[in-house]
Design a protein that fits this description.
This protein is of the alpha/beta class. Helices cover about 35% and strands about 15% of the residues. Helix 1 crosses helix 2, helix 1 crosses helix 5 and helix 5 packs across helix 6. It is globular and about 55 Å long. It binds pyridoxal-5'-phosphate. Pyridoxal-5'-phosphate binds next to helix 2 and helix 6.
């Protein structure tokens, strides 16, 4: 019989799908690493499981323990699924700009959710970074995951996502394009791919309101660049240890409006029902067009599923309110 022991056995080995209409103006072949096929509908299932297994192995996470994490939703989903299967309690600390669907989904899989304000500095005691750390200190037998600085995050992508992309493209990949939040995806995949072929270019997608692009280009962490933005999952107001700037060739910044409009385009023109960072990544490929040639194989990774955005990017009233569409 062909089955896996539990739902965690279905993580990884996601398909690669050609982008057709929306890549007509892009020289080369554009392929999407389509991560919504993971059981939690996002790429984050991969690193969630690796972070838990590594913490179990070295005793940071003990039987019956409580897992605590600050998460924009997707990592929380991956952690929550693993917590259900492995018998842990899960607490997700989330910022109030995240879609309501993400909070409801986390609660649906048994997680406790604590919502914090977005518009405060990371070191403010109300921020979701500070709140998750405080809860971890106050809760007995708990483990604070810290996906930003936890090396198991990038390691998961080095061990699974990177090798899958290399194999699926038969080593022909020339560019990897992906949104950057904690940096785990770009750093793990990028490291693996550059080890196979150092000529592969690694491009990060950033947002306005985030510090990554300027820091990469100048080494300056410019607080003046930081403001609240709409795009979910990418960009940061901190420098996570998981962002390995040395393997990234460049960043391009995509506006909130473009990310939202291109999220709708992916659904309507390709049948790709995806989250808002996918829209940003696809628009980013167009912004980077002059870097590609006819023979190139460009892989873009799409992080999460459109169902998490039905109240936002897939709601035309919201799109009009935001002045993203007429
Ligand atoms: C929807 C979405 N896109 C992109 C990212 C960025 O991925 P990474 O944290 O691996 O840089 C995340 C991470 O939270 C995400 O949830």
């Amino acid at each position: 019989m062909d089955y896996v022991e539990n739902i965690l056995g279905t993580i990884g080995n996601t398909p690669m799908v050609k982008v057709n209409k929306l890549a007509e103006e892009i020289p080369g072949l554009v392929l999407a690493k389509y991560e919504t096929f993971n059981p939690g509908n996002s790429v984050k299932d991969r690193m969630a499981l690796t972070m838990i297994e590594d913490a179990e192995a070295d005793g940071r996470l003990k039987p019956g323990g409580t897992i605590i994490e600050g998460t924009s939703g997707n990592t929380g989903m991956g952690l929550a699924l693993a917590a259900v299967v492995k018998g842990y309690k899960m607490v997700c600390v989330i910022s109030d700009k995240q879609s309501k669907e993400k909070v409801d989904i986390l609660r649906a899989v048994g997680s406790e959710v604590v919502v914090c304000p977005t518009d405060v500095a990371p070191d403010d005691p109300r921020s979701y970074y500070s709140t998750s750390k405080r809860l971890a200190e106050e809760t007995p037998n708990s483990w604070y995951v810290n996906q930003y600085d936890n090396p198991s995050n990038a390691k998961a992508h080095y061990q699974s996502t990177g090798p899958e992309i290399w194999k699926q493209t038969e080593g022909k990949i020339t560019h990897f394009v992906v949104g950057v939040g904690t940096g785990g995806t770009i750093s793990g995949v990028g490291k693996y791919l550059k080890e196979q072929n150092p000529n592969i270019k690694i491009w990060g997608i950033d947002t306005y309101g985030s510090v990554f692009k300027k820091y990469h280009e100048t080494g300056i962490f410019d607080e003046a660049e930081i403001y609240p933005y709409v795009t979910e999952g990418i960009g940061e107001d901190i420098l996570p240890k998981n962002v390995d700037f040395s393997i990234i060739d460049g960043f391009t910044k995509v506006t909130d409006k473009d990310a939202a409009v291109w999220t709708q385009k992916l659904a309507k023109d390709e049948g790709f029902f995806l989250g808002n960072s996918a829209g940003a990544a696809m628009k980013g490929i167009h912004q980077l067009k002059e870097h590609f040639n006819e023979d190139d194989v460009i892989v873009v990774l799409f992080h999460d599923h459109g169902s998490r955005y039905v109240g936002k990017m897939f709601n035309d009233d919201w799109m009009r309110e935001m002045k993203y569409i007429e």
